[in-house]
Structures are given as C-alpha cells and as structure tokens.
Design brief:
heterodimer, A: 7-stranded mixed sheet, 31% helix, 26% strand, B: 5-stranded antiparallel sheet, TRAPP_III_complex_Trs85 (chain A), TPR-like_helical_dom_sf (chain A), Trafficking protein particle complex 8 (chain A)
Chain lengths: 1448, 139
C-alpha cells in the first residue's frame, strides 16, 4: 500500500469541508493584488483552524469541532464540468499534469520491503522532482520516514486524489460541496463602502436565486453573508475605516461583519525582511484548479470573476487547453518568482488568521447550528406523519412517485430528481451539515434515514450518495459504536458505476473506501476494489489504481510479491498508455525486481524490453542500453514476437570486443613476388603463440647481444610488431613515420539481423612532437590534432591518413574482424580513441525486422532514416596487476598502451626475398639458394645480421675466402655443383693419397672457443656493410638438409640498424619462418681401429716416429625410402677433418672402389688414417676422392657446414667436458698435476681420436622424368678407438629417456682407470721375417733375430717390463715339440717416454722346423709416476707366426 | 482442454511451460507466475504438522476474466499449474484432478530418467507428448 501522508481521518475530513464563496469589489481586489494574490488566495493558507470550536446540536449537546478546515473560493458562475459521470477533457488534462509533475524523490529514503525471498526496493530509480510542488512534500516525507508505520509513499497518487476530489463538480444529489456562506469583500478606500456592500449582496442574491446560473450551487436558500471591510494600512485612512466598520456593525451586527487590515508594510521597505511565504505551496495547485473550474484565464490577470465573459471560449479544443496548461505553468513559474504577500507583515498574517477564526466561530458555525436546528425541527415535526404519510400516499397513488417524476424517469433510475425542497433532500441536507461540523453520529443516522427513503423511492443516485456518506460517517465516528459497513460502500460503488454510469462518483467512492479498508488492514478487499475500478476509459486512473492495488498485495500479512509485480506491470502498461512514461518506467523497474533472475525469461525479457524502450524515450540511454543488452546477451531471442514491433533499439551495435583488438605496425607483406619468396615476418593472420614469442625474443636477445659485443643492453626490449591481449603492452609501442598502423577490431553482431557498417574509420588524437630536436624544445610546439570533428578530416589527413572502409557486412550473430589502417605522416604521440561508422540493417531482410538500430548519438544523425552515425570508443583494460601485496589484495589493472603508439622518425626498412628456396631436402643435402636484401626505406641500413634456431641449416659462405667459382646470380646457375671441385688428374687412381689442406675455423666466421659458435648469429656479408635507400643486393645462400628426417621449422631473425644513429628505435628485426621437409638419405657409421702393423717402410719418418696409424672403416647404408625418386647414391668423396689426423688412403680392394648404393644397400669403405702434427689449432682437411673430381672440402660450403654442424665435437657432449679441461691444462704445459683424474684422462687419451669424417655423396634423383643430381654431405665424428660413430645421432634420443636426476651425478673421477684401459698403454709389435730357412742338418740351432717394437700410446712416461719366459704353468704339453726359446736376457725393464717408440732386439732359438708363434713375450706396463700401481699386462698382439723351414 | 500447462521448480522457476501456440505466450507466463503467490498462500495455510497429509491438489487458485487457474503441488514442492479457458464448462474438478495425476506420473518418469539433471528444464519428448495430448483436446 502506498502509505498516505495524511491519516485516513484527516484525508476524509479534508475531502468534505464547508465551502465559502467570495465576492470581492474591484477596489478590494486591488488591495490584495498588491500581494500578488486575490482575496480567496490570500486566505487560503489560513483556512485550517488551529483552535477548537463549539456548537450545540439539536439536542443541545455541546459538540466540539476540531481541526476544521474551510474552503474559500471565488464565485465562478460558469459550469465547467457537466454533471455527467465522465470527467471532462480539461479535468483529465489537469490530473495527468498533476501526476506527471509528481515524481518520486531522487535519492529518497531507501525503502526496502522484505517479502518472502524478495527484497524489494520500492523507491528505486527515482526521478528528479523538479517541480516546486515537491517542496512541501519533502518536509512531510522526512517527517514520515521517522514514523514507524511508514512503508512506501506514492505522492503522485495522493496528488491525483486531492486534485480529483477538489475538482469534483457540485452535484444535485448531495450538498457537501455547495456553498454555505458568502464573503462580501469591500475595500475601505471605496467612496461609499456600505453602498458597495449592498451591491455585492444583491449580486449574490441574483446569482443564487435568479435562476440565471446553475453554477455555483448554494447549500441553503438564505446563504450566510459575511461583510468584510478590507483596509489597506499603507494607503487608507484608518480612522475612516474604523468608522465605516462601526457603521457596518450597526447595520449587520457585530457577528456579521469584519474589518480586516492588511498591507501594513510598504513593498519597498520590506525587501530585506524575511517573511515566510505560506502561499507558495497552495498556489500553483489552486491556479490549476481554477483553470479547470472554468475560468480559462490565468488568475494573475483575471479581474473580477463575475465580470468574466462567460460566453468566452469553451474548453472544447484540446489545443486551447494545452495552451492554457502551458500558460498556467508559465504563470506558476512567474508567480513563484514574484513572491506572494510582499506587503504583509507577520502581524497581517495573524490578522488574517484571526479573521478566519472569527468568521468561522462567530459566523459560520452559528449559521450551521441554526440551520441544523431548523432542519431538525422541520423533520421532527414531519417525522410522525412522514413515514406513514409517504408510504400511504404511495399506496394511494398506486406506487406513483413524487409528482415531478415521470414513468420514463423512473426507468432511468439515475435520472430521478427531487425538487430542491423535497423532504428527503432536507434530511440529506441536514446530514451533510452535521457531517461538515463533524457531528458524525447525527450525520450517520440522518444518512441512514435518507438512504432508506431514497431506496424506497428507487432514487438510486441519491441512495448511493447516502450510502456512501453513511459508511464514511460510520467510519469517522469515534469509539466505534457500530462496525464499519463496508457493504454500503460496495453497493454505492456498484450503483454509481452500473446504475448511474457515473464513474466520477464511483471513483471517489472507491478511493474513500479503499483508504478506509487499508486503514483496517483489509488489503485484499482494498486491492479487489481498486482492481474493479480499473476500466478501459481512463488509463491514468486505471494505472494509479492498479499501482495502489499492487501496493496492497505486498502489504498483506503474507505478502504476495508476484501479484504485486504483475499488477505493477499492468499499472506500468496503463501509465505508458496514459503517456506517463516516467511512472511507467518506475513501475516496470519495480516489477523487474521480482522477475529478475528467477528463470522467467520470457517475462523478464518483456519487462527489459519495455524498460529499454521507456528509458529510450525518456532519454536515459544508459538504462536503455543495459536493459536491451540484457535481452540480447541472454540470447533469449525466442521472443521474436515482441521484437517484431521493435522499432527502435538503443544499443552500441555491433559489439566490439575491445580486449581482442590487435595492432600491427608496418606494411602488409607480400608473401610471394614471382619466384621470389618474401620473408614471412609477422602478420595479423598469425595467431599469437606464447612459446613462439618467447623463442623470437630469445633470438632477438642473442642477435642484439652479438651486435653489442656480447652484452644485452639494459634497455633491451624485444620488438613487437603485432600487439594483442597477450603481449606486453605496458610501454608505448613505437611506430615509424610513413609506415602504416593497422588496427584489427573484433566486431560481433549479437542480433539475428545482418548489419552493414559503412564508412568505418578510426578516431584518433595526435600530439605533434619532433624527436630530432632536444626535449624541451619539443614541448613548446606540442600541437594536438584529432579527427573527432568531421570537418577537420581534410586537414588531419595530412598528418595521419585514415583509411575508411566503405562497407563492412556482418551476418547475424557473426564475429568478424575489420582492419583499419592509419598512415602517420608526422612524428609525435598518437592515441587511437575509437571508431566511427554508419550503421544500418540490410533492407533485404524484410518487414518483420524493422530494425533501425540507433547508436549513442555523437551528433545529429544523417537524416537518412536507415542508417545512423555511430561511435564507439576502444577502451582496453590492461592486465590485472599481481606483483605487490596491495595489488594482490585489490583489483587493479595496469595500463594497456596498445593503442597509443609513439611515431618515431624514419627507420630503415628491410625486405628479404628468397630465391630457389627448397621446401624438401634429403638429410644432409646441400642446396644453393639466393637471398635478396632490399632496403625499401629512405634511410641507409647497416649492421645486417641473422640469427636462427638452426644455425647449421644455412650458410652465407665465408667472406674471407673468395669463391669466384660459384656464379653470383642465380640465372647462370643451372645444374652446377654447389661445391667447388677440381678434376682429378687423369691417371690417378681414385682413393689414392689424399690431398691435404689446412684451414682455420676462424675463416668460417666461427670464433675459436665457446661463445662464437654456440649462438647462431651470423653477420651477413654485405658489400661495404651498408644498404643504401632503395638498394638491393643478392647473396648466395647454401642450405644443408637437417640430419634428422621430418618437418623442421626453421626460424630466421634478420637484424639491422639504421646507419643514422640516435633514433628512438635502436634496431629493427625481420622474421622469417620456413618449413623444411627432410627425408632420409644415407646413414654413415664409422669405426676406427688401431693398426697393428708397423708403418710401411716408405712412410715418412715423422709419421713413423709418431706411431700414428689407424684404420678407419666407414659403413654407408642407403636408408632412403623413396625408391621411386632416388635411384642411387654415389659416394663421391670421403674427407676428413681433424687437428691431428688425416685420412691417408683408401685401402679397399680395388673392385669395390666404385661406390654406388642402391636402395637399402650398404657399402663399406676402409681407410688408413695417419696422425699428423697439429698446426696452431688449424684443421687439416684431407680429401679422398672416389670419383673423377675432387671436391675441395676445405672451402665454402662444405667446410662451412662442417664447422657449423660440429662445434668441436667433444664440447657438445657434457661427460667429456672434464676431459677437455684436462687436455687443455696439459697442453698449456701444466705439470703432471697428479691425482686419479689426471691419470684417467691420460689413460683415456691414448684411446682417443678426434677425427671427423665427411662423406660427400651424390644422389641421382628422377624428378619429372628428368634426372637430377643432388649433392650432400654427412658428418661422422670419431672419438674413441673401437667405438662406432654414426651420422644419425641416436644417442640424443636415448638421452631423452634418461630419468631426470635432481642431484648432479658425481663424475667418477676417483675410480682408477680400468684394467682394460690400462692394457692399451703400450702397443707391441714383433718384427721378424715371415719364413726362415735354416739348414738344421748343419746347425741344429736356428737363431732368428726378432725386433720387438714397443710404442707408448700414452702421453706419460711408462715403465715397461718385458718377460720373455714361457709360461710354465701351461698344462698342455703341446708346445713341447713346438717350443722355442728366447735367447739372451729374458726380462727387460724399460722406461718409455711419451709416445716413444723403442725397439728391443731379441733372438729366438728354434730346434726344429715348423710353425711357431712368436707372440709369447708378455709386456707389463705401468705409469711411471704411479708407484703404487702394479704393472698391467698389455694386450697381446695377434699371433705372430713364423715358419721355420728346414733348408736342406 | 488446457490452454497452458506449467511445471515450476521448488525454487519457483519454470521447469516447463507450454501454452496453446496461437495465444499470447507472455500472458500465460505472467498468469502462471502470479498464481505462485496463491499456491504459496495455500501451502502455508496448511499447518506444518499437517504438511504430510496435505492433499497435493490445490484446486482452483483463482479465476481471471478469461481463464481458470488450477494448482497442484508435489511433496517435493514442485508445482503444476494448469490454465483452463473459463468458457470450457465441461471440465469439472475431477477431470482437472485426473489431468494433474497424469501430469505427475509423467513428471515422475522424467525424474526417473538417469540422464535428467534435477533442476534442468524438461525436454523429454514423452512428457511433451503427454502435455500436448492434454492440450490438443481443446483445439
């Protein structure tokens, strides 16, 4: 229920008050006009009596009259409201005005009603009450908020009710609002006041009795005339006034006249004095009432009401009324501005109050008392006979009625009219009088009697009136002598409505009844009553009553929230039909609270839709947007029926997913240009990949470090060409002038209609800065530009060219990206603000969707009707901060500067193209391609470098070694070998002694040691190191297929700098990614074996001395699976590269020299390798050509790839690292550091080779019926004697399987070198003739000289013991016959220095001819320093057989 | 017969609501929603102690100008609401009762479906068919 500000009693009392008319002389009017008021207005604030009055009832009982109010009105003679049941147009207009001006207070008392699960905030969404009317309510409202019975107020309803009751036309069947008295007001300044009084009195008499006027209506024939002499203190002669007053008292009696002195203050003097203005709260209402009452003239300029031209314009036309309403409002405003009562002092106020009191108590009440008495007497005198008499007459006349009624009128029951003096009416009159003076008991009994009479007469209108008033007076009776007769009211309402068709009266009755029921907590009944009163004819009334009914529902003991909501919706609907949009919106919003989020989506959508539409018409775009968005985002578009009539939607359409916005700096790349293939770089088509980004960042860091002599500068920031939500957007990105900035915006169409955006472009703001000047100077000419104002577009295009997309189509529910381009022409700071577009739905979608989507206006839309200009800002929230504790506990977001690039001065711009770049290679295949570098900017470029994830994949060749043999341009290159070759001299046997070259690793761009080789940065050998603007250069590029089969992603990062230093951007990069598919080619395995034979005689002395000789076995297997394509492989050449070893010659059997391998074939090659003296860390390349031309392996590209693939082979393998160190320390001449570690390495060292085998092959491949020869090279690193090494490193795969160990495994340095290792310290060889002829006949003993060669393999001094004695332990006696003996010293103790070779001459003595094994000497060795160690038996040589022939 | 049949969850959100397609669907949604007030009133009218013996059928909830609204509450506080055209005088209390019983049985079947998640909207074809059968007879 809407709690009323007034109590029920107060409300009902005030609804029916004694009416007093005013007739005023012109002079008197002038007096009051000084105060901006007319006389009745002057009195109005003082019309409530503060003191109690007393009167006696007919039984002489004293009746107390409390809190009486009288109503003083000017006499208006023209009937405004026809006495019919329907309210006039004017009245409706007025009521509507009253309701619409009364809006809930903004930020009013938050009023939450809890009902069941629902918490309803009733005074939500308050609208600003900007009307002065609000002021007087505020006080009462605050007062009320403190009272405990406060629930919710609906002041608009009360305003409506008050206005409605005031504007009730006077009816014939009741007298409550008939005039009881008339004030005749004459000014004291009148020449002859008494004469004037007489005139006015006659006038009044004429109005009442002449029959000329039906309006106003008068209560009693002899209306009380009260003579008021109005004296203006500021002008008039007070004495004269007093004397006139004396005269009046003589004439009319002291109780019938009054001297009212006003205007004691001169208008000028009183300006500074603050006088309360009690009129303001009454006046505008009263003026409106006045307007409705018929005088369609603003009271400000009205003269005497009686002189009005009553035949003036009729309130027929709505327009006229509107005009008046407007005028009235304007008048109100003006009146409010000009204060009222300017000439009145507080004293005057008191005088007026005094006057009213005097008039009421001395004049009015006695008058009423007298009349009640008279009426009572009349009635009592008739009482005896009346009942019986009337009933008797009725019988006599056969049910005939009181004479004035015809039979026809009888049928039309509402039309029954009594003559004014009919006795039934006298009772009613008396009842009304009693009621007005608060004698409710008497009033009730009179009404009751009257009701019976009327009912028996079938005078339904009269009866209903009596019933209504009987109920009201029963209710108002204190002490509750009888229960409130609710059924009286029901009957009355029904009668008014159904029988009399007088909605006006029915409504009044219902309002009273509902209020009474509410006060008795009969909310259900009240609600029913109110709902019944709603009808089709008046939307405003229906809406208000429905709203009241809804309030009743939540005030029930068990609040019916859903009913409340439903009726609120109904009310809202009616409000909206009545044009009360704000009220409608408020109702829907309140109802929404019940439906929200409860799963009743259809209803919820409907409400949201209505709220959205109402908000839109009320110009509350935010609310509208949120409401519509709710509908749309909930995808509850099943309610297409509702939206079919949707003609205006207010939404930022389409949605823009701001955070998904991507920004790209730079030109869009052409990926291919003819046969040229451009570097892929970065493009908007690529998805962001965090791992890739990290990879690129690492690469960039590497290359930057290498460009800055190995140190990454502290300010290093990885280049980001494409910014998105996952990149680091904390810094202002740098863009280069004259290079485009592309912004990719993600649009989503949430609707089921296609949308067309046209003229889409970006909005930006730009601050001009010249970075070339010093900083302080730049601040001075910081100029800001923007293209926000469309007129500036021309000019702004000179600064930043803005691309406009002419049309952009969005299918229903589609998400699509648009790329918008900006091209800055100046340096400075750019801020991309948002975008603008014209929005339209496609006309092709038919009539159902008349969707004119309106977007938040940024200006007048083109009056096209079908499209609107829209603007949306791109606001990107940065990532949530989570670093410090404060940031963790609160939700704060960092900045996102994606859209705020700094435009820097020009920078070089590199474009890279690849020519003849393959996509598929065999493993190890060498291919030559070309790369073109092109500087497309206006700034020279230098410092070009490249870094790659696969540095072993490509080489630019070594710049130091000129390679004149390779053609520089790709066109001249056809089927030419990538290698540099030399034809072998004709007669030479293939595989004979190798050609040897010495090369240092530094020549191939690889520094000695770790840093240079571990990262894959390569400087690109540009001529004069600078690429001038517009210049382009082509360089050969050799590629080698990766060693492993499969698809390889190879990333290149090209780095370059501006030749002009000092720019904001230190360097730029260009990315390129290729995918290479590698397929299997050959598998090369190699083993090295120690050769047991002594070097041949012809071998150089040096080599011999160094005892270096090794056998190298190379197994080559064709593992290519593509049998159709690859026909066969030829091993063209085998080269070696090492610091100490070189391949010497091929020792394959001659017929195997032709080395062809068909599919799955395997071939074996044997080589002898010899040790050579290391030359200053230079690598020795030895080429053993197996074909007819020698490939010079020591040049580009072969050597390049060799160095690239094997950074000194051992450093790749961590376990050997220790050893490397050991070797280093030794080579530096550090003394024999002792310790087991050193020992181990020493021992191991003697088993080590460091030889890399390069197998160069040719593959014959059929491609498109053409035979193509492919070339390639494979590398095998031999490290240990006897251990097989393979070109396919399977080891790494195996390593992946090793369990993760969290503790570093201790290297086993303390373990002693194993026996097996120690047994390799000394290599022994027996040198003897294979067969020996000896004539045993002549000489029984045969002595054969045998040389035992001992060579120390190790690099330490070794003690050797040679024991020649035969083993005696041998149990077999086999050797008894075949035994021989060593002659001479049987045991030798020797010391061998590092790598020393020592020959020990021995003599063997044979007794018989036969075959003997000379390999019996046992050699024990131990390292010289290691005293504790015992000698280890050295591996015995192979059986050394000697044949002793008996030479006869 | 019926012009609208609705199943409302214990928490008063609709599990299933279906109305004669030619009519204003929204109106029925509002009607059913508003009727929940009466349902609650009727349930609360029965004392707590008596709650077990309470009859499931609630009878006529309230008549509107054009429709009569009947209610039924299962023991698990799931509400069934059937809206019937006021002009249809052939429907007596007993017929309505049997309609509710059928509805309840069918609803029980839905709940027994192991793939049905209690609290989800009902999408069972069998249930749909049964509801259609109850509504088709009207047209």
């Amino acid at each position: 229920m809407a709690q009323c500000v007034q109590s029920v009693h107060e409300f009902i009392q005030d609804s029916f008050v004694p009416m007093v008319a005013v007739l005023c002389s012109e002079d008197a009017e002038k007096v009051t006009r000084k105060n901006n008021l007319n006389f009745s207005e002057l009195l109005r604030p003082f019309c409530r009596l503060t003191s109690e009055g007393h009167m006696r009832d007919p039984n002489n009982q004293v009746q107390v009259v409390k809190n009486l109010r009288i109503s003083v009105n000017n006499v208006v003679t023209r009937p405004s409201v026809p006495a019919s049941g329907t309210p006039s147009l004017a009245q409706r207009l007025l009521l509507s005005e009253v309701v619409s001006t009364c809006q809930p207070a903004e930020g009013g008392v938050a009023n939450v009603i809890t009902a069941g699960d629902y918490d309803l905030n009733i005074s939500d969404r308050s609208l600003k009450a900007s009307v002065p009317w609000y002021r007087d309510w505020r006080d009462t409202l605050t007062e009320l908020s403190t009272s405990k019975h406060y629930t919710a107020t609906t002041p608009w309803f009360e305003a409506y009710r008050e206005t409605f009751l005031q504007s009730m036309p006077a009816a014939d069947h009741e007298f409550l609002n008939h005039y009881l008295a008339c004030l005749l007001v004459v000014s004291s300044s009148e020449a002859v006041p008494v004469e004037k009084f007489l005139k006015l009195s006659q006038e009044q008499h004429r109005i009442q009795h002449s029959g000329e006027y039906t309006n106003p209506k008068w209560f009693i024939p002899n209306t009380l005339k009260y003579y008021v002499l109005l004296h203006d203190m500021s002008q008039g002669d007070e004495h004269r006034a007093d004397s006139v007053y004396e005269d009046m008292k003589q004439r009319y009696g002291a109780q019938g006249c009054y001297l009212l002195k006003v205007n004691s203050r001169t208008a000028a003097a009183g300006a500074d004095e603050q006088i309360p203005d009690p009129w303001s709260q009454y006046l505008h209402k009263s003026k409106q009432v006045l307007c409705v009452d018929g005088s369609l003239v603003n009271s400000l300029d009205s003269t005497h009401p009686l002189q009005l031209d009553t035949s003036g314009d009729t309130p027929g036309s709505l327009d006229a009324l509107r005009a008046v309403a407007v005028e009235t409002k304007a008048g109100t405003a003006a009146a409010a501005a000009a204060s009222h009562g300017a000439c009145l002092t507080l004293n005057d106020h008191d005088r007026i109050r005094q006057f009213i009191q005097e008039f009421t108590f001395r004049g009015l009440l006695p008058h009423i008392e007298k009349n009640i008495r008279q009426l009572n007497d009349q009635l009592v005198s008739r009482k005896g006979l009346s009942r019986s008499l009337f009933s008797a007459t009725k019988k006599w006349f056969g049910g005939g009625k009181v004479p004035e009624k015809s039979i026809a009128e009888l049928k039309n029951t509402s039309g029954l009219l009594y003559p004014p003096e009919a006795p039934e009416l006298q009772i009613r009159k008396m009842a009304d009088l009693c009621f007005l003076v608060q004698h409710y008991e008497l009033a009730y009994s009179c009404y009751h009697t009257a009701k019976k009479d009327f009912l028996s007469d079938q005078a339904m209108l009269y009866a209903a009136g009596a019933l209504e008033m009987a109920a009201v007076s029963a209710f108002l009776q204190g002490g509750a002598p009888r229960p409130y007769p609710a059924h009286y009211m029901d009957t009355a309402i029904q009668t008014y409505r159904d029988v009399c068709k007088n909605m006006h009266l029915a409504e009044r009755c219902a309002l009273l009844s509902a209020e009474i029921l509410k006060s008795q907590a009969k909310f259900s009944d009240a609600a029913t009553l109110l709902i019944k009163m709603t009808s089709e004819d008046c939307d405003l009334r229906s809406a208000l009553l429905l709203e009241q009914a809804a309030h009743c529902f939540i005030n029930m003991r068990n609040p019916m929230v859903r009913k409340f909501a439903f009726h609120m919706i109904l009310a809202g609907h009616r409000f909206s039909k009545a044009g009360q949009k704000r009220h409608a919106l408020r109702c829907y919003c309140q109802a929404m609270q019940v439906y929200k989020g409860k799963g009743w989506s259809l209803a919820e959508d409907h409400i949201n839709f209505t709220i959205g539409r109402q908000s839109f018409t009320l110009r509350q775009p935010e609310n509208a947007v949120s409401a519509f968005r709710h509908i749309l985002t909930n995808e509850s578009q099943q309610a297409s029926s509702q939206q079919a009539d949707l003609d205006s939607v207010l939404l930022p359409l389409p949605y823009i997913n701001s955070s998904a916005t991507r920004v790209y700096f730079g030109h869009e790349r052409r990926l291919a240009e003819g046969e040229k293939q451009a570097a892929t770089h970065v493009s908007l088509d690529q998805e962001f990949d965090r791992d890739l980004a990290a990879m690129w960042r690492d690469l960039e860091e590497q290359v930057v470090a290498s460009a800055n002599r190995g140190v990454v500068p502290a300010t290093f920031q990885a280049t980001q060409c494409c910014l998105n939500s996952q990149t680091d957007n904390l810094r202002f990105p740098l863009a280069v002038v004259e290079e485009p900035i592309i912004v990719e915006v993600v649009f989503r169409n949430p609707l089921k209609v296609p949308l067309v955006l046209s003229d889409v472009s970006l909005l930006w703001k730009f601050t001009l800065k010249d970075f070339s000047r010093p900083q302080d100077a730049a601040v001075g000419d910081a100029l800001a530009f923007s293209n926000e104002k469309e007129t500036l577009t021309k000019q702004s295009d000179d600064i930043i060219a803005t691309e406009v997309i002419p049309e952009f189509f969005l299918n229903p529910e589609e998400t699509k990206v648009a790329r918008l381009k900006l091209l800055p022409h100046q340096t400075g700071q750019l801020n991309i603000l948002g975008l603008v577009y014209n929005l339209a739905s496609t006309p092709s979608t038919g009539g159902v969707w008349q969707y004119t989507a309106l977007v938040l206006f940024i200006g007048p839309s083109p009056a096209d009707g079908t499209s609107v200009r829209g603007r949306q800002d791109l606001e990107i929230q940065g990532p949530r901060l989570n670093q410090t504790k404060e940031e963790k506990t609160s939700v704060s977001h960092g900045p996102d500067r994606r859209l705020d690039p700094t435009i820097t001065p020009p920078m070089p711009l590199l474009e890279v193209f690849f020519l003849q770049f393959p996509t598929a290679l065999l493993c190890g295949e060498i291919r030559k391609a070309y790369v073109e570098f092109c500087n497309v900017s206006g700034v020279p470029l230098c410092g070009l470098r490249v870094v790659s994830t696969h540095p072993d994949f490509f080489t630019f060749g070594s710049s130091s070694l000129a390679t004149p043999l390779t053609p520089l341009s790709p066109t001249s290159f056809e089927n030419c070998s990538a290698y540099k070759t030399l034809a072998t001299p004709p007669g030479a046997t293939p595989g004979s002694v190798a050609a040897v070259t010495l090369v240092s690793a530094g020549d191939f761009g690889l520094g000695e040691g770790g840093s240079g080789t571990s990262n894959g940065v390569a400087e690109i050998p540009l001529e004069d190191r600078v690429l001038k603007p517009g210049q382009s250069t082509q360089l050969p590029l050799w590629l080698r297929g990766p060693d492993h089969e499969g698809v390889h992603e190879i990333n290149f990062l090209f780095y370059y700098e501006s030749a002009v230093k000092g720019g904001k951007i230190s360097h730029r990069v260009l990315r390129h990614t290729v995918f290479i598919c590698a397929s299997r080619s050959l598998c090369v395995r190699a083993t090295a074996c120690r050769s047991n034979t002594l070097p041949e005689e012809e071998a150089e002395e040096e080599d011999e001395r160094r005892n270096g000789s090794m056998l190298v076995f190379v197994d080559v297997e064709n593992i290519n699976t593509n049998e159709a394509g690859v026909r066969e492989f030829h091993i063209a050449q085998v080269s070696s590269s090492s610091k100490q070893w070189r391949l010497h010659r091929c020792i394959n059997p001659a017929e195997d020299k032709d080395c062809k391998l068909n599919s799955r074939e395997r071939g074996k090659l044997c080589f002898r390798a010899t040790r050579c003296k290391p030359v200053q860390e230079k690598y020795i390349f030895a080429d053993l050509s197996l074909g007819n031309e020698q490939i010079i392996s020591s040049t580009t590209p072969c050597a390049d790839f060799f160095f690239r693939r094997c950074p000194p082979s051992d450093s790749r393998r961590p376990p050997v690292a220790v050893e490397t160190q050991g070797r280093l320390s030794r080579s530096q001449g550090a003394g024999p550091g002792g310790g087991a570690e050193d020992l181990t390495s020493l021992v191991r060292k003697c088993n080590e080779v460091d030889l890399d085998i390069i197998v160069l092959w040719k593959a014959f491949v059929v491609e498109d019926n053409k035979q193509v020869i492919l070339e390639g090279q494979l590398h095998v690193a031999l490290q240990t004697i006897g251990k097989e090494a393979c070109s396919l490193t399977q080891k790494e795969e195996a390593q992946e399987m090793v369990l993760l160990k969290f503790k570093p495994e201790l290297p086993p340095p303390m373990t002693r070198p194993s026996m097996e290792q120690l047994s390799h310290l000394i290599k022994t060889n027996l040198h003897y003739p294979e067969s020996y002829r000896h004539p045993f006949i002549h000489k029984s003993l045969c002595l054969v000289p045998v040389t035992l060669t001992l060579s120390n393999c190790s690099l330490a001094q070794v003690d050797v013991i040679i024991d020649l004695r035969h083993k005696t332990t041998s149990p077999e006696s086999l050797e008894v016959h075949g035994s021989f003996t060593w002659l001479g010293q049987t045991q030798y103790k020797l010391q061998l220095r590092a790598q020393e070779v020592m020959r020990v001459p021995l003599r063997a003595c044979f007794l018989h001819a036969g075959v003997y094994n000379l390999g019996t000497p046992r050699v024990f060795a131990k390292l010289a320093d290691q005293g504790a160690m015992c000698e280890t038996s050295q591996q015995t040589a192979t059986p050394a057989l000697i044949i002793i022939i008996n030479d006869t | 017969m019926a012009v609208c049949i609705a199943v409302i969850a214990k928490e008063n959100y609709p599990l299933y609501i279906r109305s004669v397609p030619t009519q204003n669907e929204l109106k029925f949604h509002y009607t059913v929603h508003t009727s929940l007030d009466v349902v609650e009133e009727k349930i609360s009218a029965v004392g707590k102690a008596m709650a077990d013996q309470r009859e499931l059928y609630l009878g006529l909830l309230y008549p509107t100008e054009d429709y009569k609204v009947y209610g039924y509450v299962t023991n698990s506080k799931v509400k069934f609401v059937i809206v019937v055209d006021s002009s249809n005088t052939s429907l007596r209390d007993n017929e309505i009762r049997s309609m509710f019983r059928k509805l309840h049985n069918s609803f029980t079947d839905v709940m027994c479906n192991p793939f049905y998640n209690p609290g989800d909207t009902i999408q069972s074809k069998a249930f749909d068919g049964m509801v259609s059968a109850m509504m088709v007879q009207a047209s």
